[in-house]
Specification:
This protein has 14 helices and 3 strands. Residues 300-310 have low confidence and may be disordered. Strand 2 and strand 3 form a beta hairpin. It has a 3-stranded antiparallel β-sheet, with helices on one face. It is mainly alpha-helical. It has helices at 11-25, 30-54, 59-81, 91-100, 102-105, 109-117, 140-152, 158-170, 174-177, 207-218, 244-253, 258-272, 275-282, 286-296, and strands spanning 185-187, 192-194, 201-202.
């Protein structure tokens, strides 16, 4: 596929289809097999293919699909043991399903919503999702100390230093960093920018010099020489970016906690500039920016256009 010998198909979709075939083969009840096959074909595969059209899928997306299919199968088995069918499912059954193992069984909600939407199940009230609180963000002085160390310590891997700057300075999740391509980096000889959102974000010194050095070194990587590999952080598989879990492990090795560092950076940024501007420039959703402003103690009102003195 990388050399255009075979038609291009997303690798993660192929792996998921193989997994799904093996999974469906273990389901003995014909009605359960048919229902799960319809769910996978008309909901999951349609969703994955739509996402693949925008760019190669990551493992997290197919991992979520596997969890949904696995818990959907577990739900149908659990329901059969109670002597009920999907058509005669009741609110009491739904509550009992979620009460026993709420965290483990939550991925089945995608299947349940699909059944309700397609008329296979009565419309019932699903329990609200409880969002677990993130670990406490780093104090700002600690985040800045990490940033200074990663920018100035030449003994650290160049790739890890560049990624750490994206996390600690621009609050980028690692899953988004691995999707960057070399086309997202623009260098006019004076200023270097990266397209994280709109408009592109300029890189300050010494981050700009680090990026230039990394782009030059990237050309010598054996797995970056593929004709189709435009990834800024190419993986070892042809045409695939680096695995986000591996990149997070590299950050932890140099003492940078990805999640806490990113949370600390974005909370500081939304206090220094209008949240809508930050959200647009860094590729965040407006709702996420709203929540972060509230958590950080800021407000959106200062960005509202017009004369506020009247």
């Amino acid at each position: 596929m990388d050399s255009d010998v075979l038609p291009r198909v997303d690798r993660q979709i192929l792996l998921y289809q193989r997994w799904l075939t093996d999974r469906l083969a273990t389901i003995e009840a014909p009605e359960h097999h048919r229902l799960l096959q319809h769910f996978a074909t008309w909901h999951q595969m349609r969703r994955l293919r739509a996402a693949a059209e925008k760019g190669p899928l990551g493992r997290s997306q197919t991992h979520q699909a596997k969890q949904e299919a696995t818990q959907a199968g577990a739900f149908l088995t659990w329901l059969a043991d109670r002597g009920r069918t999907v058509e005669h499912f009741r609110q009491a059954d739904l509550d009992a399903w979620h009460t026993e193992k709420p965290a483990t069984r939550r991925p089945a909600q995608t299947f349940l919503r699909w059944c309700m939407r397609t008329g296979r199940m009565p419309r019932l009230a699903l329990p609200p999702q409880v969002i677990a609180q993130d670990q406490a963000p780093l104090h700002q002085h600690r985040r800045l100390a990490m940033l200074r160390r990663t920018l100035n310590d030449d003994s650290l891997p160049l790739r890890s230093r560049v990624v750490a700057a994206f996390v600690l300075l621009y609050a980028q999740p690692v899953s988004r960093i691995v999707r960057l391509t070399i086309d997202d980096v623009t260098d006019d000889g004076t200023t270097i920018t990266v397209s994280l959102g709109h408009p592109p974000s300029p890189l300050p010194e010494p981050v700009a010099d680090l990026m230039r050095a990394y782009v030059r070194s990237r050309q010598d990587l054996p797995y970056a020489s593929s004709r189709s590999s435009r990834w800024l952080f190419p993986g070892r598989q042809p045409g695939q970016p680096m695995n986000s879990a591996s990149l997070q492990a590299h950050l932890r090795e140099i003492g940078v906690p990805p999640q806490r560092g990113r949370t600390s950076a974005i909370r500081q940024l939304v206090l220094q500039a209008p949240a809508p501007v930050i959200a647009k420039a860094l590729g965040y959703h407006d709702k996420t920016a709203t929540r972060l402003v509230t958590e950080a103690g800021g407000t959106w009102s200062r960005y509202a256009p017009g004369d506020h003195s009247r």
